[in-house]
């Protein structure tokens, strides 16, 4: 019966995983931290519910494969291109500086050079899972610190591939020849490049053929086959399974089926990842932690704040404000999940001993726990940094002092850019406040009225002339900064009209309480566009459609935010649908009835719709007779019920009526 112990272990892991996911969601902490702690508790060093980890190593390996695949799927070449500057500068500098200082420190305290190099790389990596969850929970993925943090984390994920490849080169195994190791690495790089090149052309074709079967089970099985097959090929080439999975994800991210692939794989990834993270926790000796609490605590705090400080200095060097730098540092201060993957692989090459592994594992887990706790200080950090004095160039101050009755635009993204262009063309004075120094520098060269600064700070708002401004528009993706700035702006100028763009409707009430005069939630604007298009399809008159849209927008979408919508508030659309309507149809050269008389078309008999007028060369001919020809370039006015007009348009377009 011993062969079935693996099923027993998996049942225990999944049984523990369910309450952990629930509890840690309530605590607003990443569930992977709970999985690590659970592994410590139920493992061979805890309550011994699982006595050996050998049986679940294969399951954990599948978890790593799926994790690497989804990382590659979410990265894509397109995203790399979009954030390439932050990726190469912030990401590259963080990896280089952190690894160099960490390696130097380990060498100084007497750890062998190859192990120092390996440990330095382990400390450099942060948790993509944790930073993505922290940012998404706060709707800050598109904020300045969100973009920088994701870029740094993405660069670290990309470095996993070369780190796997260099492990044999720095191995302490005596039977590994350095020259042979270098040759193997070169061969591995070549095999990786060949696989990447061939997969780029082969995989999309395979996925397309699988999708054409229109069978969900075939699609899921085919995707899993591609993932595991690519991983197996890289393993044969002397690389890890994880590298092949990452390559597969990177290639399929550019396909038309990436969203469906992600939807199919995510449940599997989450299930196997819980097994992987619990398996990592199983390896941690709780007695070792209890016997070395001071040293482990010191390593945890030192590692976290060393990484955080490095990132803070890098972001400050990129000319971003202190608040952005601190938030990036805190979010990426932990040691990440891929460090565990590397550490486990490193044990096979004698790159990390048992005691070092225990110190590393314990400290890494505790840095993960520390991150979301410290990140809760974001509002306090924002308030404290807002007290610092800003250095604004004199020319910007002089320009702002001349403004009155102007518009202040917070953020120069798509919405801010379009608004600025419209205001410029209409001659309305405005000033843009933007946090990205590169954007400010470039747009100032183009003659844009833009100023670098944090819109939440009172001194920045005063310099921008908020007390003399008529309107302030928040076009930024940072809910916390929007709320803080709105409060300050209204205190300085209670009469200013505050227009706020927000992503989610649950932020509307709070923004209104803070003084927002108009809140535009993207959720509801999308719903209104759908609402409008549907009514247009049924030929509801435009003035009636706009009346309904305006009704829904009244009082900040209050009608839509109710759990039960009061239908009586609407104009009776069913009565409108029952009435007749007119519709215009343009006759192009492709129309099958060109150069035919209205009698030959016999539209009324076929559809119950009537042609009441023809517009030709700018002139209208009312009540046309059956002898009148229909010419290319004519516009005909149709009258009838909604159904009859729809049928008439289908017929005129050459469609067969059912």
Describe this structure in words.
Helix content is 64%, strand content 8%. By secondary structure, it is α/β, with parallel strands linked by helices. It folds into 4 domains: 2-382, Na+/H+ antiporter like fold (Up-down Bundle); 394-516, NAD(P)-binding Rossmann-like Domain (Rossmann fold, 3-Layer(aba) Sandwich), CATH 3.40.50.720; 524-577, no CATH class; 580-652, Regulator of K+ conductance, C-terminal domain (Alpha-Beta Plaits), CATH 3.30.70.1450. It is globular and about 100 Å long. The termini are far apart. 39% of the residues are buried.
Strand order of the largest sheet: 3-2-1-4-5-6
Q: What is the overall shape?
A: globular
Number of helices: 30
Percent of residues in β-strands: 5-15%
Query: How many separate domains make up the residues?
Result: 4
Radius of gyration: 31 Å
Query: What is the CATH architecture assignment of the largest domain?
Result: Up-down Bundle
CATH class of the largest domain: Mainly Alpha
- Global structural class: alpha/beta
Quickly describe the structure:
With 658 residues, the protein is of the alpha/beta class.
Keywords:
Na+/H+ antiporter like fold, globular, alpha/beta, 8% strand, Rossmann fold, 658 residues
Task: List strands and helices in order, with pairings.
Blueprint: H1 5-26, H2 31-42, H3 57-82, H4 84-108, H5 113-124, H6 128-137, H7 144-158, H8 160-166, H9 178-212, H10 216-236, H11 241-252, H12 258-282, H13 286-291, H14 293-317, H15 322-331, H16 337-347, H17 354-375, H18 378-385, H19 394-401, E1 407-410, H20 414-426, E2 430-434, H21 437-445, E3 450-452, H22 458-463, E4 471-474, H23 479-492, E5 497-502, H24 508-513, E6 518-521, H25 522-537, H26 542-561, H27 573-578, E7 581-586, E8 596-597, H28 598-601, H29 603-607, E9 610-616, E10 619-622, E11 629-630, E12 635-640, H30 642-652
Parallel strand pairs: 1-2, 1-4, 2-3, 4-5, 5-6
Antiparallel strand pairs: 7-12, 8-11, 9-10, 9-12
Helix pairs in contact: 1-2, 1-12, 2-12, 3-11, 3-12, 4-5, 4-7, 4-14, 5-16, 6-7, 7-15, 9-10, 9-11, 10-11, 14-15, 14-17, 15-18, 25-26
């Amino acid at each position: 019966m011993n062969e079935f112990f693996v099923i027993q272990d998996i049942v225990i892991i999944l049984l523990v995983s369910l309450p952990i996911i629930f509890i840690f969601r309530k605590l607003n902490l990443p569930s992977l931290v709970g999985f690590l702690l659970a592994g410590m508790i139920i493992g061979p060093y805890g309550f011994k519910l699982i006595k050996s980890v050998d049986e679940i190593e294969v399951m954990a390996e599948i978890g790593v494969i799926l994790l690497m695949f989804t990382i590659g799927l979410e990265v894509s070449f397109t995203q790399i291109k979009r954030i390439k500057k932050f990726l190469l500068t912030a990401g590259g500098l963080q990896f280089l500086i952190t690894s160099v200082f960490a390696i130097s420190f380990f060498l100084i305290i007497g750890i062998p050079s190859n192990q120092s190099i390996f440990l330095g790389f382990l400390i450099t990596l942060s948790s993509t899972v944790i930073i993505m969850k922290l940012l998404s929970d706060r709707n800050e993925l598109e904020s300045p610190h969100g973009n920088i943090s994701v870029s740094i984390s993405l660069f670290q994920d990309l470095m996993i591939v070369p780190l796997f490849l260099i492990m044999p080169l720095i191995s302490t195994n005596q039977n590994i020849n350095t020259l042979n190791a270098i040759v193997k690495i070169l061969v591995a790089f070549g095999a990786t490049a060949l696989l990447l090149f061939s997969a780029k052309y082969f995989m999309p074709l395979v996925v397309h053929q699988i999708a054409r079967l229109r069978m969900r089970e075939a699609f899921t099985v085919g995707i899993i086959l591609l993932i595991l097959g690519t991983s197996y090929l890289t393993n044969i080439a002397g690389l890890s399974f994880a590298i092949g999975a990452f390559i597969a994800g990177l290639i399929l991210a550019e396909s038309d089926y990436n969203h469906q692939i992600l939807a199919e794989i995510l449940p599997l990834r989450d299930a196997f990842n819980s097994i992987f993270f619990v398996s990592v926790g199983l390896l941690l000796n709780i007695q070792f932690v209890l016997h070395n609490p001071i040293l482990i605590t010191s390593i945890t705090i030192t590692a976290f704040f060393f990484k955080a400080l490095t990132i803070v200095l890098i972001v400050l060097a990129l000319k971003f404000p202190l608040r952005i730098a601190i938030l990036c540092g805190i979010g990426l201060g932990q040691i990440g999940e891929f460090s565990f993957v590397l550490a486990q692989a490193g044990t096979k090459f004698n790159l990390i001993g048992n005691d070092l592994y225990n110190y590393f594992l314990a400290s890494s887990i505790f840095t993960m726990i520390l991150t979301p706790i410290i990140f809760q200080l974001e509002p306090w950090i924002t308030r404290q940094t807002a007290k610092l004095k800003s250095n604004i160039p004199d020319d910007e101050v002089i320009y702002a002092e001349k403004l009155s009755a102007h518009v202040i635009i917070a953020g120069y993204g798509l919405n801010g850019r379009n608004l600025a262009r419209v205001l410029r063309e209409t001659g309305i004075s405005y000033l843009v406040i933007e946090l990205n120094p590169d954007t400010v520098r470039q747009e100032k060269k183009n003659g844009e009225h833009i100023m670098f600064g944090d819109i939440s700070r009172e001194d920045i708002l005063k310099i921008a002339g908020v007390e003399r401004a008529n309107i302030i528009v928040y076009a930024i993706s940072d809910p916390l900064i929007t709320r803080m700035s709105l409060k300050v702006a209204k205190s300085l100028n209670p009469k200013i009209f505050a227009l706020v763009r927000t992503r989610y409707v649950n932020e509307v009430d709070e923004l209104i309480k803070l003084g927002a005069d108009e809140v535009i939630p993207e959720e509801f604007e999308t719903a209104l566009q759908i609402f409008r298009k549907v009514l247009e399809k049924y030929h509801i008159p435009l003035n009636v459609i706009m009346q309904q849209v305006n009704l829904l927008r009244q009082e900040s979408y209050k009608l839509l935010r109710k759990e039960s919508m009061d239908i009586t508030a609407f104009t009776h659309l069913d009565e409108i649908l029952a009435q007749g309507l007119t519709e215009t149809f343009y006759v192009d050269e492709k129309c099958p009835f060109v150069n035919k008389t209205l009698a030959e078309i016999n539209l009324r008999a076929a559809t119950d719709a009537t042609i009441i007028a023809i517009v030709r060369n700018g002139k209208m001919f009312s009540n046309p007779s059956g002898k009148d020809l229909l010419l290319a370039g004519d516009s005909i006015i149709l009258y009838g019920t909604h159904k009859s007009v729809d049928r008439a348009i289908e017929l005129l377009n050459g469609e067969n009526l059912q």
